[in-house]
Amino acid sequence: MTRALRLTIFAPLAIALASCGTQPISSEIGDGTFGQATMNNAQVQMGAISATQALGQRFAAEVPTTITFPFDSAALTPEAQAVLRRQADWIRQFPEVRFRVYGHTDLVGSDRYNKGLGLRRAKAVVAFLATQGISTSRLEALVSYGETRPVIAVATPEERNRRTVTEVSGFVRNHPLPLNGKYAQVVFREYVEGATRPHPTNREIATQINPGG
């Protein structure tokens, strides 16, 4: 190959590579959320994470998992109820998945009292989710951490410590839609249902044909 020919071929390539160096290629990929579902599916299939972990990560990313309570109370505030309705909407999408509610308190009061209070808070959440159409067979309120896992380690009343946390805990046994450990099946089902449009009624078709009718 002659020197002139080599310059003709490689000069444009060198210019292109040099221009790439002025702006990282990764800057055009996005914020890192693109392809998250596909990556989770691949990790589940390879055994890197379990289906429970994958669904738990998705639940935590898509809805608030925590609500807070008034001091020395298991009463649900209107704000807490609004969050629980969002949780219920998400939970209804996955009838084969189980959830666990953890109750917590702040550091005021005895450990024994606070464990009971934390459990009452968890049971209050389960009872509310049941009013939203979620079967209590899929919900657990058996674990209370009391005051042992504060968000803010202070001895004074702290609202952020008076909370419940809802988490994915596993799968319903003998459910008619078993996952068998395959998170991808859930995602596939959602894609299919999301792509299905309701068939128009005869009235809708007639309106489209004759808008002035």
UniProtKB/TrEMBL annotation:
<keyword id="KW-0998">Cell outer membrane</keyword>
<dbReference type="InterPro" id="IPR006664">
    <property type="entry name" value="OMP_bac"/>
</dbReference>
<protein>
    <submittedName>
        <fullName>OmpA family protein</fullName>
    </submittedName>
</protein>
<dbReference type="InterPro" id="IPR050330">
    <property type="entry name" value="Bact_OuterMem_StrucFunc"/>
</dbReference>
<feature type="domain" description="OmpA-like">
    <location>
        <begin position="56"/>
        <end position="172"/>
    </location>
</feature>
<dbReference type="GO" id="GO:0009279">
    <property type="term" value="C:cell outer membrane"/>
</dbReference>
<dbReference type="InterPro" id="IPR036737">
    <property type="entry name" value="OmpA-like_sf"/>
</dbReference>
<keyword id="KW-0732">Signal</keyword>
<feature type="signal peptide">
    <location>
        <begin position="1"/>
        <end position="18"/>
    </location>
</feature>
<dbReference type="InterPro" id="IPR006665">
    <property type="entry name" value="OmpA-like"/>
</dbReference>
<keyword id="KW-0472">Membrane</keyword>
<dbReference type="Pfam" id="PF00691">
    <property type="entry name" value="OmpA"/>
</dbReference>
